[in-house]
Amino acid sequence: MAGGGDALRALLRAANALLRQRRYRAALAVIKGFRNGAVYGAKIRAPHALVMTFLFKSGSLREKLKSIAQATYTHSRNLAYFVFTYKGLLAAQGKKTPFHSFLAACIGGWLVFGDNNPVNSQIIMYLLSRILFGLARLAVDKGYIPQPRQDPFPLLAALVWGTVLWLFEYHRETLQPSLQSSMTYLYQDSEQLREQVILFLLTCDFFKVTSAKQR
C-alpha cells in the first residue's frame, strides 16, 4: 500500500512539474479544451434530448434511449472536436488576434459543424440568436446605433412572436422540426382538445335533456 501511495505522489509531482513548463501549456490547454467540450456537450444535450424525446417522439423505449444517446454523443463529440480545432489552430499560429480567432473559429465551424443535421442545426440557431443580440449591443457601445431612449425589448418580443406564429400558421415547413413539434402541441393539439371537450359537454347536456324528458 505504501509503495502504491509513493508511486501516486511521484506521478502527481511529475504531472505538476509538466504543467508548470510553459512550452507544454498550449498543448495541454488544447487537450483540456477537448475534454471540457465533451463534458459540456453531454451535460447540455442529455437532459434536452431526454425531455424532447419522451414528449414528442414515438417508438419503443429502446428506440427512444438510442435516440437520446446518439444526440448526446453527437453534441459532445462535435463540441469537443471544435474546441480542439479552434485552440489547436490558435496554438499553431503562435499568437491571438481578433482576425486569428475569427479565422480559426471559421475553419472549425466548417470542418465540425458543416454537416446539416438536427444537432448541428440547433447549435447554430442557438448561437445565431446570441450573436444578433451581441452585435446589437456592440453597435450601441461603439456608437454605430444611438442608445435607445426606451427599452426596445417589448417591441422585439412582439415582432419575434408575431413572426414565428405567422410562419407556423402559414409557412410551417420553414421552421425547424423540434420547433414545429412544440408549436403543434401548443396551438394545434389544443384546438383538438377543445373540440373534444365541447363535444363531450354537448353530449352530456343532450343526455341530461333526454333523460329529463323521459321522466
From TrEMBL:
Main location: membrane
Coiled coil stretches, renumbered: none
This protein's record includes keyword Membrane: yes
Keywords linked to the UniProt accession: Membrane, Peroxisome
InterPro entries linked to this entry: Pmp4 (IPR019531)
Subcellular location: Peroxisome membrane
A GO CC annotation given for this chain: peroxisomal membrane
Subunit structure comment from the entry: Interacts with PEX19.
Protein name: Peroxisomal membrane protein 4
Organism: Taeniopygia guttata
Phylogenetic placement of the source organism: Eukaryota, Metazoa, Chordata, Craniata, Vertebrata
Gene: PXMP4
